[in-house]
Amino acid sequence: MTRFVFAALALAMPAMAGEAASPITFTKDVLPVLQKNCQTCHRPGQVAPMSLLTYKDARPWAKAIKAAVTTRKMPPWFADPKYGHFANDRSLKQSEIETLAKWADSGAVEGDPKDAPAAVPWPKDGWGIQPEVVMDLPPHDVPAKGVLEWELIALPSPFKGDTWVTSMEILPGDASVVHHICFSFEKHRDTTVYNRYEWVQVPRDETGNATPGNTGFGELPGMVMATRDVGSNEVKLRQGHPTLRQSLDFCYLPGAGYDDYRAWNAAKLVPAGTDVIVSIHYTANGKVVTDRSKIGFTVAKNPPPKKFLVQGSGEDEPVIAPTAANERAVFASAYNPTFAIPPNEANYLAPPMDITFLKDVEIVRLRPHAHVRGTSAQYRVTYPDGREEVVLNVPNYDFNWQLSYGTALKLPKGTRMRVEFRYDNSANNKNNPDPKRWVYQGFQSWEEMMAPNLGFILDRDADVGGLMAVTN
Ligand code: HEC
Description:
Blueprint: H1 2-21, H2 26-37, H3 55-58, H4 62-70, H5 94-105, E1 133-136, E2 140-142, E3 151-156, E4 163-171, E5 178-187, E6 196-200, E7 224-229, E8 236-239, E9 250-252, E10 258-260, E11 266-270, E12 274-282, E13 289-291, E14 294-299, E15 306-310, E16 340-341, E17 348-349, E18 353-357, E19 361-366, E20 374-382, E21 388-394, E22 405-411, E23 416-423, E24 439-440, E25 454-459, E26 468-470
Parallel strand pairs: 11-15
Antiparallel strand pairs: 1-14, 2-13, 3-12, 4-10, 4-11, 4-14, 5-9, 5-12, 6-7, 7-8, 15-25, 16-24, 17-23, 18-23, 18-26, 19-22, 19-25, 20-21, 20-23
This protein binds heme C.
């Protein structure tokens, strides 16, 4: 008996010694994963609440890291892995999840500093890109409460001649009040006034909901416009329509801070004589805040071989065949009068959006956008030969994460795409501010939206006009 115990111990000892020789350590096993999958957000100045740059930063979070990765709450990624391939897929492999979990369970040790990979040279001052040109947006006061409409403002472009922009980023001054900032490059018009905010006075009831049919989209009779000069508090009202127009070149949304076209050898041409039209939407957070946001760019020295375009961009050569029916291609919900979510409806399928591609296209990005009642989004293509393929399925859409999915879809002319979004207007949806009311499309997060946001890559000199038509 005694002999047996000794034998067992003798056998066990070398195995334990072997394990002790290579425990899971921070420097060797954990840090490489944090660098690759977490630090874009988990470093000072970024969206996440704590830094995971160093052992000292990460050690107190070991248990929370295990919980967050084993439940797949972190990193945020919502594409159903059964469909599509995404260049920017930041989800963890099962083996990486196990590494982080084992590290937390085995005392979260540091290990030998010599094992650590070099620190990632993250851009400074909170940027995601390292901008070469920076534009300051005028400081904007945000009141403690109330509804702020989407405001437009025109600013001169920071570029002198024709410029190929290779990446762009909006750095919010105070992320807690910036709901979104979008901008587009538009040709300067004689009527454009710089440094003046302009917005539609949307008629709202006491709950903040707009009247169906007048949510600030389009050019309706009886619209009231408000303007305010930068630096002044005086708001002027007039009947009429917006004087500024905007397409959608780039948007800052939580979780989507910058666009970088360098990976595709692409850029976006900003011709000389272009203005930057910025659309700003603040949400009050209970405190009076002055926001100072910035826009940053990198630019190409020589024109790159490809250009990047988003659906909805291109005033002179619209991506979408310019017919009235196609206007709603940007916000599928916006011009669709049948988009109406009944009270307490837990699984509302919005009228689907059908797109037909009128030329061969290359789509590199899909960014489904809905508001707080949005629950899922699916993009399905039917090729001219009849073959069908789901190219993106987001079964658990989360409004708090406006993620872009980087695809590589080469679709021949005649391919059709169907986009379907679902919404939960029941009390089960914990983000639902009011399950008792009908919900229509609108700009505010408690109203709804359905926007598929396709991003295209084209040869630099290719014609842009009429890449797609909305057929339903
Ligand atoms: C796209 C940005 C982003 C990425 C990438 C990201 N996080 Fe987070 N993380 C956040 C934000 C924002 C929060 C706070 C809000 C929340 O909990 O949703 C957070 C919260 C957390 C928390 C706290 C969770 C809790 O329950 O309070 C942990 C732990 C965490 N992240 C770990 C990680 C790890 C580990 C990775 C990489 C494997 C990662 N995160 C990747 C943005 C990110």
